[in-house]
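User: Here's a chain of 113 residues. Predict its fold as tokens.
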Amino acid sequence: MLLNEKIAMVMAEKARTLKAPFLYYAADYVFDGTKTSAYSEGDGTNLLNVYGQSKLKGEQAIGQAGGAHVILRMNWAYSLRGNGFVSKVLSWARKQETFKIVTDPRGANCKEL
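Assistant: Prediction complete.
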């Protein structure tokens, strides 16, 4: 909660005082993954774990800070275990001279769609 809620709030408040937009990388863990189509910013959340709860609290704290902000809910971007998108692309680049990447990926953490 300290990192995802409190520090996000402090940073958003500082950005507001500097009149700078604040960019927050949120997570798709605020959803349960049961929707059969793409999620949108207006969809209700259904938190599955404490991490999702902390990310949602961060989003809410940033909104309450009142400054200009953008919240990006994303998944599969980075992983210390090497399974994130960045790690995969770097691995492919080392192994192949050329490779193809989809431009409209869709993923789910909870179940296969």
